[in-house]
Amino acid sequence: MRKARRTIREHLRACDVVLEVLDARIPYTSRNPDLNALLGSKPRVVVLNKEDLADRVATSRWVRILEAGGHPAVPVCALDGTGIGELVRKVRRVLEVAGSVAAGRTPRAMVVGIPNVGKSALINALTGRRVAATGCRPGITRGKQWIRVGPYFELLDTPGILWPRLGDAEVGFKLAAVGAVKEEVLPVREAALWLVEWLRRYHPVSLEARYGAAHLSGAEMLQHIAHRRGFLLPGGRPDEDRAARAVLKDFREGQLGLVTLDLPDAFGE
Ligand SMILES: Nc1nc2c(ncn2[C@@H]2O[C@H](COP(=O)(O)OP(=O)(O)OP(=O)(O)O)[C@@H](O)[C@H]2O)c(=O)[nH]1
Ligand SMILES: [Mg+2]
Predict the structure, then answer these.
(1) What CATH fold (topology level) applies to the domain 2-161?
(2) In the CATH scheme, what is the code of domain 169-267?
(3) Which terminus of the chain has fewer Cβ atoms in its 10 Å neighbourhood, N or C?
């Protein structure tokens, strides 16, 4: 964490603007709590990535909340390019407003965000190329590389990886649900139970549509899914852990509808 912070600070010095990537399904929970201190007054544009998986109404309310907080925000789907043009326009505008780039110099930007929010996908979408490393190349030491984004600015080819917020159990479950925490370190069953209860409260229709039941409690739902899908342990007992993994996978792939887990109501709009 300390090393990550030092690397980001170093890269930041060379940048005129930062693209802060959040997961549109959890714009509050996916925000690194130390970023304000790290960035100071550096111009910033917030990217609400994976907008294709989030609730549309909640996303526009989040844009207003974030912009009221002082930073332009843009919903984006890095996979199909939705919002990329708007993002480039907003980056240019914050740079103009900041007026910190001398005439004739090309502004420089970098992407930051917690794991798995789509930083690499965003870099690829902005540059229109597959430049963001998806695998490691051992033995090759490379310096910083800047890639042009149209004629407007240059982007650092490696994003800054930020650590997620620590908090109560619910924070952990939300990060688990969207895949920001590795499955191995996850309490899979607890996360799935929490998600089922949450969906039962706010999106019962999606549960009904996907699993043919919305009234069941979390534990009953896992058994129901295990039976329906034939996830059985030797002896015929339902494999609830496998059902739990299936629920999380369904959610991440959008099979449980377009869902925002950080409700804008709870964050002051
Ligand atoms: N549905 C959807 N999936 C996305 C979007 N952007 C990225 N993904 C997927 O999310 C996963 C993570 O994307 P990456 O670009 O590798 O995320 P990252 O932030 O670079 O992740 P790390 O390098 O592990 O920190 C991949 O499976 C992407 O295909 C998006 O806008 N919509
Ligand atoms: Mg990456």
Answers:
(1) Rossmann fold (3.40.50)
(2) 1.10.1580.10
(3) N
Closest to 21 (Cα-Cα) out of 174, 182, 162: 162
Residue 115 CA: which ligand is closest?
1
Binding pocket residue ranges, ligand 1, CB within 6 Å: 49-50, 52-53, 77-79, 113, 115-121, 161
Task: Give 42-83 pLDDT, tens digit per residue.
Answer: 999 999 999 999 999 999 999 999 999 999 999 999 999 999
Contact 100, 43 (CB under 8 A): yes
Task: Give start and end residues of each alpha helix (H) in 128-260.
Answer: 169-178, 188-202, 204-211, 218-229, 240-252
pLDDT at 268 over 90: no
Ligand 1 centroid–CA 77 distance in Å is: 10
Residue nearest to atom 6 of ligand 1 (CA): 118
Q: Considering the chain, what is the average pLDDT of its residues?
A: 91
pTM above 0.85, yes or no: yes
Ligand 1 atom nearest the C-alpha of 123 is 15
26 Cα–ligand 2 center, Å: 19
